[in-house]
Amino acid sequence: MEIVLVSLLNGLVYGMLLFMLASGLTLIFSMMGVLNFAHASIYMIGAYLAFTVSRLIGFFPALIVAPILCGLLGAAIEVWGLRRVHSNGHVAELLFTFGLVFIIQRSVQMIWGMLPMAYRVPPSLDFSLFTFYGEHFPAYRGFMLLVSAGMLLALWLLLKKTRVGMVIRAALTHPQMASALGHNVPVVFTIVFAGGCMLAGLAGVIGGNYQTTEPGMADAMGPIVFVVVVFGGLGSLLGCFIASILMGMIETFAVVINTSMLDLLKPLGITLADSNLFTEIMAMPVARIGALLPFVMMIVILLFRPRGLLGTRDT
Amino acid sequence: MSRLRLICYSFAVIGWLFGGWPAVAEETIKLAYTDPFSGPFASGGDEFLKNFQYIIARKNAAGGALGRKYELVSFDDKLQPAEALIALKSMTDQNIPFVMHCTGSNVGAALIDAVSKHNARNPDNRILYLNCGALATELTNEQCDFWHFRFAGSVDMRAAARIKALPPDLKKVYLLNQDYLFGQSIQRDSKKWLAKLRPDIEIVGDELMPFGKVQDFAPYVSKIKASGAQSVLTGNYNRDLNLLIKAAVDSGLDVRFDTFLSHLIGGPTAIGAAGENRLTSIMEFNSNVPVDLKVPEAEKFAMDWRSSGHLTDFSALNFVTMIDMLTDAINKAGSTDPLKVALALEDMHEKDLLGQETIMRKEDHQLLMPYYAGVFSKDVKYDAEHTGFGWKNYMTASAADLTLPTTCKMKRPE
Question: Do A51 and A117 contact (CB within 8 A), yes or no?
Fold first, then answer.
């Protein structure tokens, strides 16, 4: 029982980190119809910038400064890069962001080197918040939950209660109509792209010291974020939120389950005697394949509900 | 217009700079080196390349081999066997007699096979494979080959040293490794040596985790805690190790981490104070070994590396042994012909930089060399990667200790 509660908490923290990263991507994806491959790269830049800035002026100012820098970078990418290739269609945009991944990766390696950075949790947050069945719950995790919940609230207020948010929502669900009504859709694009990058940067700031800040971090986070966005569905922040938490929970719980498919069949009286590839797969504990489950779920949802969990448009 | 002229001039200057020395270049002994220089494992390849540049610069300053200087030619194999084979083709086209390769047993296995076939078909253009870090034990057992020499301890040797270095009061270990060739063989050999050397230790966890896919190690930490383990025995490295230790410290999990590879570059930086007095590793070398053994030349060698602008520490003593043995073999053979050099390398006995005995075993071409077990501590002369913590050596497994039987049945050229 206690391991279930502990895992629930762990899954929630990880899910919220995923959401922070995925929410920006889902906004960009919904609006432009293009998966921004470089989104996880911006996350990485956020972490590196936070490391550098926090050395100069401390962690908490970096929490504000680094995402803003990422947002500016995102705006620059949109205005001088994406907007130019936009007229050539989605494939061109897709390839553009794909190329960007390599450029950012290489630039980060050239600027900061290939080694992990010594980016650590600030001392003021480096203590145990409470002890839960003998396991410490670090204050930094609580802080992560707080920041991501705050971000969720701010995003919701922005989208639901402001005029900009209204235009964005309109452009999310009915992009053609919004532009036909005379809204400056390119500017909306820039705002959304910059905003998405800002959220990725924020995720980088708090994820960089929770995990490690190194050139491989974009590659590590990239795929799972795409899964969340596709699973959650186009144009739906709520779907993205549910998908993030779900994926966080799945990955966390999969680790603690030691049973295999074969164990499930045992009560039914089915046992496999001989040893071949099939029995090997059946006997593999869930923990060993846990990290693959989100991808399996993505394939399942694409097969049976291509628009995603709460998507309003087809992918 | 003037810009165009400037570009033309700069090309002319570049051409003059690089084209002016071919007469000298022909005199060198070329050493090809292939490893990943791009992708997630680029940091390793990059670091090893710097190691080799440092070692070879010193060797050249000392006269090289046969009065000729070494020249390093690097290739990026992206940790892909297919890419490594393309690189090998390019090396043999350039008549390079030696290829060094340090990362990835899958690449190593492909290279052994390709080199063997190439040498059988092209007796006048052979190439010798000097393995500095593809560790799977199979490469000097079932897959052993005359044209392959390994200058690094196999997984089997490391596992033997690793289990020997476990503290006597340890009773419960948790095995956690990456689910691919290397991790699986560490898991298997750890169990083998635990049963042999420490039957008193109970294995309370036996787990393989997806390689490089896990983002959050908190659930693993909960599992380890629930198992009651006193130590996590793991061959994980890079991110898979750093995140594990971070998560364990955050949750207040009070266990040792008895690792194989946490001393690799970036490990000490990423782990930091979290590893104090509970992180151990099995190493070829660290800056404190020469202090303990009182070998000032080796200490100076490591310090010169540090003071020449490197952020990391010198740990690849086996690379030095490799270049030393190669040089002596070339001098002994009186030529760079791979066959003559290979025969000269066989059964070579040599003292390494620390004055320890190392032997290139003839039966399987495996270097028998010592390993040092160190614990991450503040109480050291030299820290690692400027973290304030360094490796305090507490056990040595000598080359004789690590002389393990081999099943190699080598086919030798006539």
Answer: yes
